[in-house]
Design goal:
40% of the residues lie in helices and 14% in strands. It is globular and about 45 Å long. It has a five-stranded parallel beta sheet with strand order 4-5-6-7-8. It has 259 residues and is α/β, with parallel strands linked by helices. Helix 2 links the parallel strand 2 and strand 3. The longest helix is centred in the middle third of the chain and has 18 residues. The chain has a single domain, classed as Metal-dependent hydrolases (TIM Barrel, Alpha-Beta Barrel).
Length: 259
């Protein structure tokens, strides 16, 4: 069974002490690819090192996370634009809006988001969107730029049916992770079979570990728990869910190497 973790910060310092073991556990549960969203300029070297150490498994994106949009955001974006021209990536990400932690730089976040959407269109790459407490504005900004060529995923999705339908109408995917397994999230009951072509699996590790690991450090192997919960919610076998979500991941990331 092949699973793809479409959103994992496996390069983060939380894995410095046991990264090889974490990778081994991911392989043991069938994870065949790990997609790595970038955070800022400082996170790039460790992300590149993961690609070098595990070239068949770990695949990098390039982008500036909205929580890293500060006074120097234009300088960071200038540097990242050069990197996009210099080497290959599977996506532009992690980009978007975050109104949860700090609203001081919301105008700058929107400018950074829009500029990075332009990169994606120019480079024919999908975008990986962070939209914490900002889902409506994020969808609006994507809709304003959707010319038929823009593709991507709203990661860590745990919103309502209304937002899911808007995202599907844009031709975008939703990334389902640990949030899907939490009791207070109604999304599991709202999912329909015709949503399946728009769903990919993720962990967002080391954050948001799924039940039964909630509260612990998340890791790529835990995507198997999300996979199991989705199979139960859809009343389908785990092998069917694995096949569908893996096919979706390759559609989302056309540059993701295949076995």
């Amino acid at each position: 069974m092949n699973l793809i973790d479409t959103h994992a910060h496996i390069y983060a310092e939380q894995f410095d002490e046991d990264r090889a073991e974490v990778i081994a556990r991911a392989r043991d549960v069938g994870v065949g690819a790990i997609c790595m969203p970038n955070i800022d300029r400082d996170s790039v070297p460790s992300m590149y090192q993961m690609e070098e150490d595990y070239p068949e498994l770990c695949h990098a994106m390039m982008g500036l996370h909205p929580c890293s949009v500060k006074e120097d955001y234009e300088e960071q974006l200038d540097w990242m634009e050069i990197e996009l021209d210099r080497r290959d990536f599977i996506a532009v990400g992690e980009i978007g809006l975050d109104y949860y932690w700090d609203k001081s730089f919301v105008p700058q976040q929107k400018k950074a988001f829009d500029r990075q959407i332009s990169w994606a269109l120019e480079c024919n790459l999908p975008i990986v969107i962070h939209s914490r407490d900002s889902i409506s504005d994020a969808i609006d900004m994507v809709a304003a730029r959707q010319n038929g060529d823009l593709s991507g995923v709203f990661h860590c999705f745990g919103e309502t049916r209304t937002e899911l339908d808007r995202i599907k109408d844009l031709g975008f995917f939703v990334g389902l992770g640990g949030v899907l397994t939490y009791k207070k999230v109604k999304l599991r009951e709202e999912l329909k079979r015709d949503d399946l072509p728009y769903i990919v699996l993720e962990t967002d590790c080391p954050y948001l570990a799924p039940v039964p690991k909630r509260g612990k450090r998340n890791e790529c192997s835990f995507v198997s728990y999300v996979h199991q919960h989705l199979a139960e919610a859809m009343n389908l076998s785990e092998s069917e869910i694995a096949a569908i979500t893996t096919k979706n991941a390759y559609k989302l990331f056309p540059r993701l190497p295949r076995d």
